[in-house]
Specification:
Length: about 170
């Protein structure tokens, strides 16, 4: 005798973020990639949360706050994000958010890095990558400052493009 067992789809939320909408960044790509992942995994997307114009180090973001509130209400089991850095950019922010989600039996999946924080290894990897990301942010900042100082030294204290304005 055959028995058909219906299983519920896993309910998920998608979280996306861009720091500046006027710098050529497009949130639509993140949404598309996350929805494609959910389709492959047969997940039911409950809602899409988008923050535009917020740095990755900022904890207080309107859509992220709504996502946490909805996680408390158990509207979904997983949060799908394109990259870990879209969710949080410093180890403290990432760990705090992961702990808060865990309180409500909710976890994060990062599509690009193949991280699933429902496992101890996934949680460890998320923590490690957020620390590496913070170091890279420091390195980029240092290289930019060094490059500006070098340009000023070479150009008598000035740097940047020459003006095209005439007197």
């Amino acid at each position: 005798m055959w028995v058909l067992i219906m299983t519920d789809l896993v309910k998920v939320a998608i979280y996306t973020r861009i720091s500046k909408s006027n710098m050529g960044q497009d949130i639509d790509r993140q949404i598309h990639d996350c929805k494609e992942y959910c389709k492959r995994m047969n997940y039911e997307v409950v809602d899409v949360y988008c923050d535009e114009g917020f740095a990755r180090t900022t904890r207080n973001r309107p859509s992220l706050d709504k996502l946490i509130k909805d996680a408390r209400q158990r509207k979904f089991k997983l949060v799908i994000s394109d990259e870990l850095s879209r969710f949080g950019g410093t180890p403290k922010v990432v760990l705090d958010l992961l702990e808060e989600l865990k309180l409500w039996n909710c976890h994060l999946v990062s599509v690009k890095e193949f991280i699933d924080t429902s496992t101890p290894m996934g949680e460890f990897t998320a923590t490690l990558l957020s620390a590496v990301s913070k170091m890279e942010l420091f390195n980029i900042s240092h290289r930019v400052s060094s490059g500006i100082a070098n340009a000023r030294r070479k150009n008598g204290g000035e740097w940047g493009r020459k003006t095209n304005l005439t007197p």
